[in-house]
């Protein structure tokens, strides 16, 4: 107040070092100011953007008329910060003038005092005290001399065993006794020590060379035609060619045989280093939310396929123990949602997707990332469309532009309008645009969602054909109720009608009972196209799939006899709007030649099945129920994932074991882990190294397996959380950045940065 030209400024240690204004070094209480060029401050704002300490005063700096700004050190924080800037030339000149006058007065006062100080020294007896306190050695030093007869020098030595008790001199007993040394009372003494550093004067003379005139010829010196003919016909040239042509032939042959520029040292054991490189997962960010994630476990985590820094997660209710029964009513208050966060605004949510029930799993569509499909714990399949909010998600990314004075002025003008929009940190709530009909959906939780390739589609006749409509997407879901369902995505018009009907239902719920609704009910139920039943009628065996892995099915379906296929595949009826297939539906269908028709299913009954089928014809014409069935995991399979580098290699995790399988090998997995002490809860392949994958455990550890180093135990492990790891999701947005999202049972999402050792594959990996 009273100084409008003064603006308090907080300078961090980095800014103080850049502009040479560090307290007690560059600026002190006596020399408390620094003149900084206006151009240097603008360049700092260009380089560091909003991270610059001068960014809050951009407008003041740009409007300053002078070339240098006065920055004053304020050690007592008179204006609220450790520095302040003077924003007018008049105030700057007044400050410098008053400082110069104060400096002159101080010099005059100190000059008078120095004249009074210079007096002759008079001894008051202090030298005697120094002499008394000097340290002198009073004790006589003891000297020892050890000698040996010269003839024994270098004599051989022989050692023998002998009982120490036979000879008195060979054995000496050290009995305990009370030492009087430690009972002496030490008196306090004042001892003074004066140390003076030794000074040396050293000079050095550099070698000086005389300047010389030198010239360089840059035009080629050419011989005349007569000189060229004379040189070519000379005997000296003939003798030289005769002497060296054999060596030249040998050298040319060697160049043809081997590459002389090949570096053999680089090719020798490039991965074998003397010191093992550090392998670690560095903490990057942590996400949690008190409203949506308290007392809940994270069930699924997915990265946005195209927008950098956007990550989504879903949460569900934690399994209730006997001690947690009293908290059941509190858990019912939680909303069922999918939360979308951004790296650049980690403090608040960007988008919240509302769901009818807790989400067990969800997936972004690979061809249209604005479409999200999710499976609920009650078996429903839900669809969201976030295309309206795509620009909001993209706007969270910082854009690096060249900062000019004009751009800064434009930014200052727009700040007033942006502040009102950014003041509200409430996320956008998005309704689901489609939900499956309860009579025709899964009876248990939908445990996995997989999108089909966008160039294929299934039809209700059980066939696979090319999808020419780019918006007609399809997906497959599985559930422990022994069923696999294939879904067709509703059109945009159907999704909009679904949302409008949901809004009408909410309005009807709040309408008085005496008012009747005149709107007609529209059938907007979402029903599956095909249902695969995994029950064996012969043995009454049920297989409850928890994970499914589909291959890219690049083929078309054809039938052998139309009459038989119609009997085998019952058409849709009012009771069943989908085509249901079982193990007997494959007897009248013809198998495809030279075509792989397998996909893999991990079951709840701890069996890993390879079902020989394509999407339309589930079982082969020979009537076999399974091509192969393996009982390896003693608990439910929680991970079944194909390798991102090999189409026929996949990883399965469940219980206390994991295994790596290869399609076509029928005698079991190609790699099987031993039974661990704890449980494996989730697994994930590395996106950059074929031989690396990550395993989450129930004790909060992440096991890092590098098959090039060890196959019997993890090469490294790291503790991430105090609770169980529930989901792992990797992401590689660039060649320099690689992230691993790890979720735990406490509702916390950890974003870890993967080190370069785990990201750079070897040449032959």
UniProtKB/TrEMBL annotation:
GO terms for molecular function: dynein heavy chain binding; dynein light chain binding. One of its GO terms (biological process) is cilium movement involved in cell motility. It is found in: Cytoplasm. It holds the Pfam family WD40. The keyword Disulfide bond does not apply. Keywords: Cytoplasm, Repeat, WD repeat. Its main location: cytoplasm. InterPro entries: Dynein_IC (IPR050687), WD40/YVTN_repeat-like_dom_sf (IPR015943), WD40_repeat_dom_sf (IPR036322), WD40_rpt (IPR001680). One of its GO terms (cellular component) is inner dynein arm. PANTHER family: DYNEIN AXONEMAL INTERMEDIATE CHAIN 3, DYNEIN INTERMEDIATE CHAIN. This is WDR63 protein. It comes from Drymodes brunneopygia.
